[in-house]
Amino acid sequence: MGTCKAPIFNLFSSSLFSSRSKLREHPKPISRPPLTNRRLLLFSLPVSTLLLNNSLQPSSCCALESFDPVSPTDRKASLATSQRISEALGLLDKGRELQAQGDFDQALYCFSQVIEKYKDFAFSEYARVGRALALYEVGDKEEAIAELEDVSISLKGYPEVHAALAAALYEDKHAPLLAENQFTIAVLLDPHYSDLSYVKETKHWPPSLIISLRNFITLS
Q1: 65 located within any domain
Q2: Angle at 49 between CA 43 and CA 54, to 5 degrees
Q3: Which of 2, 19, 88, 212 has the fewest CB atoms within 10 Å, measured from its CB?
Q4: 136 neighbors 206 (Cβ within 8 angstroms)
């Protein structure tokens, strides 16, 4: 009896050991849901929820579309400023046109209007240049020189101011050294101001100032 049980038990043991060895060598994979599908599902939930909320609340979209950051008061003020700029530039251009035509009295009026009504705009300084040239021609040379001296500071580096001031200082103030300094600045910025035809035909200087510039250039 004892001799028959031992082989059977040994056979059962060897089979069990063989099965365990095979399991260790070739473990059966555990079934898991695909990771990609899980991620797609996870990412798609907030998007679909957002779309659903937007479709249920159309009034919020309309509110965003109708929002205007500029108040009616600001818009009205902007339009008023644009209108004033247009009027000031129109007067400035008219003054230059009258200056080119030789009508220095009317040119003086236009330039003065720009200075009086629109002095809050930076370009009104150029109207002061035109006003000084017109004043020089109509005979108020003292005021013309004072205007040129003042505007030569606010428009420092603007060659026409320095050239006109040089001519006036030499002719009317008898200050050749000051005139030379101003003229040096002018021709360094724009060499054309040493050409009398340029100030006459291009810049439309008044005849009296052209004579003053000629006397300075020729030292006469």
Answers
A1: no
A2: 135
A3: 2
A4: yes
CATH number at residue 167: 1.25.40.10
* Domain span at 187: 79-218
The model carries a pTM of: 0.67
From its phi and psi, is residue 183 left (phi > 0), alpha (psi between -120 and 50) or beta? alpha
The pLDDT tens digits of the residues spanning 142-170 come to 999 999 999 999 998 999 999 999 999 99
Average model confidence (pLDDT) across the chain: 81
44 or 99: which carries more pLDDT confidence?
Answer: 99
Question: Does 92 have pLDDT greater than 70?
Answer: yes
Sign of CA dihedral 138, 141, 145, 147: negative
How many residues are present in the chain?
Answer: 220
Distance CA 196, CA 173 (A): 21
Count how many domains the chain has.
1
Sign of the C-alpha dihedral computed for residues 60, 64, 65 and 69 taken in this order: positive
Please state the φ and ψ torsions of residue 148, each to the nearest 5 degrees.
-65, -40
Q: Is the pLDDT of residue 2 over 70?
A: no
Task: Please say whether the dihedral angle defined by the alpha carbons of residues 166, 171, 174 and 177, taken in this order, is positive or negative.
Answer: positive
